[in-house]
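Possible regression after last week's pipeline update?

I re-ran a chain I had predicted before the update to compare outputs. Posting the input and the new output here so someone can diff against the archived version. Not blocking, just want to make sure nothing changed silently.
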Amino acid sequence: MRVIGVRLSLLILLLAGTATAADPPVQDLADGRTGKIHFESVTPTGFFQLAKRQATQKTVIFGVLRVPRKATGPVPAMVVAHGSAGVAERESWWADHLDDIGVASFIVDSFTPRNIRETATDQTQLSTAANVADAFAALKLLATHPKIDRQRIGVIGFSKGGQVALWTGFESYRAAVIEDQTKFAAHVPLYPACNGWQVTDHLTGGPILMLLGGRDDCTPAVPCREYGQWFKSKGVDVNTIVYENAYHDFDSIRPPVRAKNVVTGRKCNMLVDLDRFVITVRATGEDITRTAASYERSCQERGVMVGGDTEGRKKSPEHVKAFLKKVFTL
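New output (post-update):
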């Protein structure tokens, strides 16, 4: 049944993709529509620009919305943020799992509308700030849907999207996109990059479930566990689970392989202060605000292991479902 579900999800995505790029963006979902939906976001060039509300470049992006067929009233929903490879079978697989527990899914494509295929080999093509803005624009839109409970909308993301799932807990980003008090009720980052910490005294407070690979040499688990402790120090409920033998992309169906061209910042060590707009080297305190781009280039490497893990692929949906059942009171 699971294979059939995945195929159906992929078919839905392919059929949705027949819509033209000229489709106008919707302002709300009061009509209860599902499927492929175009909506407006912004494309900030960096996080400080987003936090300062200086991102003015409007961009029409799209997502694919699935609402459980058996829904009898407003249901919870999850914004699904893809990783550096873009939208693929992973996102549909997770949408199937969300459907299993009566949760709607909105798979947001941040790349295709911007003519980007992937950023795994070149992250300079698009700042992750744009992905964060897209997630908030998606949240704002979902909150207008009559079949979705606006108080129970969360976000799940993978790698680059895992950073989105973490940083959408920051008030400065939320307020830059959403005028009212709508916020994410749950955050589920899978193997996010935690080499560069973003910090602030102003968090939205949504609980976090962070799932990591113990053998991940692309976005290592250790700095993420430490980052989780920082979130806890700010009063956020954080649960971190590590699949000890798993590499990056542990929920993938493909076996682990060496991806020699994939860029990793595992040796970078930045601290991005969103309240003071200062960037330092976390280990030394050296101010690199003006030279951050140069620092990032100097500490990046290429070559990582990526691929599925039996334990991670089996248990991660179980852990996510248990977390969401608790948070959404399902």
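Follow-up from reviewer: compared with the archived run. Residues 2-322 form a domain with the Rossmann fold fold (CATH 3.40.50.1820). Marking as no regression found.
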